[in-house]
Amino acid sequence: STTTVLTTGDAGLDSSIDLLNALLLQWQSEVEASGGVFHVVVIPRPDHHFMLARFDRRLLILDLLPVFSSTLPGYEYAKIKFRNDGHWNELGNLLAAVALYQDLVARGSVSRLAANEIRAALEKHYKSKGKWQPRELGSLQFAY
Q1: What is the DSSP annotation of 58-94?
Q2: How far does the chain reach from its first CA to its final CA, in angstroms?
Q3: CA-based diameter of the chain, in Å?
Q4: Cβ within 8 Å of residue 107, ≥6 positions away
């Protein structure tokens, strides 16, 4: 059997990705040894397929692109970021939080919360920073 090794053609970048994988595997090992669950969350940005293909397959990967695409038809990164910077807005954070939460519940790592408890936790986070803008969430509905 043959193993296909993906390379970028840039030795420096390839060795950086190898180092990243080694660190992530070490962190995953340490978290699991203490009873936790370690996820590598792949953000649905234009370069996301490149990184998804390069992560070590022993890592627990959560790819957010399917979640974002199924929740937001015609998904584009611009729909989930603040207008003035590249960080996720409330909608992007809520989608990511729900996806991670659903994954943890499915693995039995956390207890199921009601939809209003998840939204309240996110609202508390934003209010603590003085940046809660609930209009950004609109009427988005999804199954918790």
Answers
A1: TS-EEE-HHHHHHHSTT--GGGGB-TTSSSB-HHHHH
A2: 42
A3: 56
A4: 37
Crossing angle for the helix pair 115-128 and 90-106, to the nearest 10 degrees: 140
Amino acid type, 53:
A
In tens digits, what is the pLDDT along the chain, a chain of 144 residues? Answer: 434 455 666 677 778 888 999 999 999 999 999 988 888 988 887 777 888 888 999 999 989 888 888 888 888 887 787 777 677 777 787 788 888 888 888 888 778 877 778 778 777 776 776 665 555 444 444 443
As a whole number of Å, the CA-based R_g of the chain is: 17
The whole-model pTM stands at 0.65
Kind of pairing between the strands at 61-63 and 40-42: parallel
Whole-angstrom distance, CA of residue 117 vs CA of residue 103: 17
Half-sphere exposure of 21 (CA within 13 A, CB side): 15
Nearest to 97 by CA among 39, 28, 45, 29: 39
